[in-house]
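Colleagues,

For the teaching module next term, I've prepared a clean inverse folding example: a structure given as tokens, and then the sequence designed for it. I'd like students to try predicting residues themselves before seeing the answer, so please don't circulate the second half yet.
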């Protein structure tokens, strides 16, 4: 995988072989770094015409409501505006109160958009990558 961003609490990668963007968020990330990482990932996806996206927040124990609010109100609308609805989104999260809220936010967007994009939640990043690269490989081009 090609490293596009390497920060203390956030990394963005482009898997050129399987053609997906992965964003990894670590515990202790600041709001500015969180926003910067997601913006960087979005620009990379648009620039490389990538329609598969892996959000990996599996190591987060907690994150602020401010981060989740920014994600829901600012990031998701621009994500779909720039990439369209023909996208595949895999989300790796631990199960806890905060990540359950995040998952509900993404799931609500999915329901609001009448499931025009493919969405799956995982607790394991290996299964998420498998889903992105194998299970739905033929459906997204």
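(Answer key — instructors only)
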């Amino acid at each position: 995988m090609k490293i596009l961003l390497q920060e203390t609490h956030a990394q963005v990668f482009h898997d050129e072989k399987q053609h997906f963007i992965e964003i990894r968020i670590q515990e202790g990330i600041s709001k500015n770094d969180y926003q910067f990482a997601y913006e960087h990932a979005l620009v990379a996806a648009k620039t490389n015409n990538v329609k598969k996206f892996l959000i990996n927040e599996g190591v987060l124990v907690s994150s602020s409501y401010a981060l989740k609010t920014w994600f829901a109100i600012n990031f998701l609308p621009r994500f779909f505006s720039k990439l369209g609805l023909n996208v595949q989104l895999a989300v790796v999260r631990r199960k806890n109160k905060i990540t359950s809220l995040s998952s509900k936010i993404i799931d609500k967007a999915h329901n609001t958009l009448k499931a025009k994009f493919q969405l799956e939640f995982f607790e394991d990043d290996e299964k998420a990558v498998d889903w992105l690269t194998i299970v739905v490989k033929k459906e997204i081009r």
